[in-house]
Specification:
- The chain is of the alpha+beta class and about 210 residues long.
- The chain folds into two domains: about 60 residues, Winged helix-like DNA-binding domain superfamily/Winged helix DNA-binding domain (Arc Repressor Mutant, subunit A), CATH 1.10.10.10; about 120 residues, GAF domain (Beta-Lactamase), CATH 3.30.450.40.
- About 45% of the residues lie in helices and about 25% in strands.
- The strands form two sheets. Strands 7-6-5-4-9-8 form a six-stranded antiparallel β-sheet. It has a three-stranded antiparallel β-sheet with strand order 1-3-2.
- Strand 6 and strand 7 form a beta hairpin.
- GO terms for molecular function: DNA binding; DNA-binding transcription factor activity.
Length: about 210
């Protein structure tokens, strides 16, 4: 007996449209969004107008884009306390040292989410833009996906002293650039970041009050 799919809730429909906007590089028309989400055009229009009133979506003539309120909400997201703040500086240093694009990757619903990035190649901006997801295999960038896009990654897990892994740092290379030479550099960056996450702030001296 075929199981009947439950009706899509209003909230689910709204988030489906927002996700479609992201997939369409942040801007799309009503028909395009309705078709890509398999939502009736009238329903999509009603949801988009409600999101526009909340400033989660902006409308420019006949097109919609992600709004300022969605940006503000996204800025408050953290995969782990202080991880984004500390990772951005570490990624810049890693990119300067290796001249390769570098990314912070965290697990997300069976994929890898690019949480932050320091990118050098124009083509990497399409694949590794923060907020995008890529296929994974056993918690690492999928080798088949890497081969399809003619790139390789040197990855290292960000691990806390408790043994918990909160993400990974990866340097992105285009063959035939050697991968082994970067592995130690990436591993050091991951260890530095893991240590910084648990380092306690220096106590405030009474003389400074």
């Amino acid at each position: 007996m075929e199981t009947k799919r439950r009706p899509r809730s209003v909230l689910e429909g709204a988030f489906t449209l927002l996700d479609a906007l992201v997939r369409h590089q942040g801007e799309a028309g009503l028909t395009q969004l309705a078709n890509s989400c398999s939502i009736p055009k009238a329903t999509a229009h009603r949801l988009l107008e409600q999101l526009t009133e909340l400033e989660v979506v902006q409308r420019s003539e006949s097109r919609y884009r992600v709004g300022a309120q969605a940006f503000r909400l996204g800025q408050s997201w953290q995969p782990y306390p202080r991880l984004l703040e500390l990772a951005r500086g570490e990624l810049r240093r890693l990119t300067a040292a290796t001249r390769a694009s570098s990314v912070l990757a965290v697990p997300c619903d069976g994929h890898i989410l690019i949480a932050a990035a320091s990118l050098t190649r124009p083509e990497d901006h399409r694949l590794f833009r923060p907020g995008s997801t890529v296929p994974q295999r056993i918690g690492r960038f999928c080798p088949i996906w890497q081969a399809e896009h003619e790139l390789v990654t040197a990855e290292a897990a960000i691990t806390l002293p408790t043994g918990r892994t909160v993400g990974s740092i990866a340097a992105v290379l285009a063959p035939p650039r050697p991968l082994a030479a970067l592995s130690d550099t990436v591993a050091r960056a991951a260890r530095t970041l893991g240590a910084a996450l648990v380092r306690k702030a220096d106590p405030v001296s009474p003389m400074s009050l």
